[in-house]
Amino acid sequence: MRARRHLAPALERQPAVAASDFGDAQTTGLAWSSSATAWVSAADSNRFSWGRAADYRHRLSRELIRGWRAQPYTGAVRKTVLGVGIAMAGWRAYRLHAAGAITVDLGIGRRVQPLGPLAWRIAAPREIVFDVIAAPYLERTPRALEDKLQVWERSADMVLAAHFTPVKCGVTTTVETVRFQRPERIDFRLVRGPVPHVVESFLLADVEDSTDLTWEGELGTDLWSLGAWWGGRVSYAWENAVRGSLASIAAEAERVAGHAHGSAAT
Fold it and tell me: What is the widest separation between alpha-carbon atoms in the chain?
């Protein structure tokens, strides 16, 4: 207490800095630094109580902000910063939505459009084609597919799996349930992805010694025409990814069938 009484007169002798001291800040900016130095010196040299120091800092901050707001270019700067911030936030939201990290499911203005159908004739028995499709889900996922598929939950005839699909702006993640009805059907239903609704199916039909593999489904989006435009972009990328998968399935099934046929012949 004695030390505080000793310092009190020194505090009272500190010169007050009025708001007018900052007038030159609008033209030169030099008064800001000099006034700030006066305030900080008053706080530092006398080592007064933290309560008084906080009061000095508060008054200094208020005067600095008042001087900054008086600058003629402040309005334009604010608009520019706000515009850049909105653009960055919009781009980030678009990337999260396109990547499947967030799903907008409002249930308003729902538009549904067909997926496919895409058909492929595979020179292999239907059982082999079914096993080629189902094995990465129902059995251990091969290392070659780890960057495209992760099975999160697995049962005898159903799995919950995440699919990773490269697109122009990155990688899209879709989480789907996959249900197996041996040997004629495999159904997919979207849980999380860039659109709120997708159902799709692989249909397998026997054709002599070959298999007709058909993919078809539907995709739904919200918000009327805007959602339909977004759905068109998603369905285009979705169908391209399925075409690649069908080609890989056909090649692998025919390889397995050829190997089995060769083994049986010998």
Answer: 110
